[in-house]
Amino acid sequence: MRVLVVEDEQHLAEGLRFNLEAEGFEVTVRDNGEDALAAFTGASAPFDLLILDVMLPGIDGFEVIRRLRDERHYLPTLILTARGRPDDVVKGIAAGADDYLAKPFDLGVLIARIKSLLRRRQWSAEKAALPPNQTVINGRRIDFNTLEIEVDGERQPLTVMEANLLRYLLEREGQPVSRAEILDKVWQVQSDTDTRAIDNFIVRLRKYLETDPTHPECLLTVRGVGYRLNRV
Q: Which H helix or E strand runs over 14?
């Protein structure tokens, strides 16, 4: 498995390289966002996982994620944030990250998170053997095994966090779900965090689910509260 580590603190980057290589991973290290994006130029899925510091010189980690997703690179992504900055977590998830870890972190926790994210690759490879775990929202088929949404025969990858939020809203179908509840129950972030990034996250989900995202029919805003999901 190939891992790209993007971290501008040299001692941390080299520590990650050493420990990940000891776990059997092939590791590439970059220290800025421009070089991280360049590593994907002209390559087809060159990496299996991205570990990305959000505070980078030049192009920051949030913009790196956004550009990779725009270019249809959907590899699992773990962001590294400064402890005490939950807004970074929300912004990273809204940009398309799959998981996060606050610095300083325990190595064992990092390895566990990496292995959990890499199961996404395994699920995709073995999807034919998995039991059904699908649902339909507004004519779009959601497959929670492979983390994909199918629209008009075309499959669109979902991030882990997108799938987790959809599942959470489905479990509460027809009920208003507050932004604070999403932060706490889905993203495990303290509820006093700025919630504006959630709205941007919902905009992206509407592009997947709605016939006309500007006039949503299934992922509805509940004024002053949050959101409500109807299958339609």
A: helix 10-22
Give Rg (Cα) of the chain. Answer: 18
pTM reported for the whole predicted model: 0.70
Q: Which two tokens stand for residue 169?
A: 């809203």
Go through the domains of the chain in sequence order and give each one's CATH number. Answer: 2-125 (3.40.50.2300), 127-229 (1.10.10.10)
Q: 218 and 230 in contact (C-beta within 8 Å)?
A: yes
Cα-to-chain-centroid distance, residue 113: 13
Q: Mind spelling out the 3-state secondary structure of 161-227?
A: HHHHHHHHHHHCCCCCEEHHHHHHHHCCCCCCCCCHHHHHHHHHHHHHHCCCCCCCCCEEEECCCEE
Burial class (CB in 10 A: 0-12, 13-18, 19+), 215: exposed
- For residue 11, what are its two tokens? 């001692």
Instruction: Name the H helices within 61-106.
Output: 61-70, 86-95
The amino acid sitting at 232 is V
The tens place of each residue's pLDDT in the chain, 232 residues long, gives 899 999 999 999 999 999 999 999 999 999 999 999 999 886 555 898 999 999 998 899 999 998 998 888 888 899 998 865 777 888 888 788 888 888 888 888 899 889 888 875 665 555 444 456 788 898 899 988 888 899 888 888 888 888 888 989 999 999 999 988 888 888 777 656 666 777 878 888 899 999 999 999 999 999 988 999 998 7
The β-bridge relationship of strands 219-222 and 177-178 is unpaired
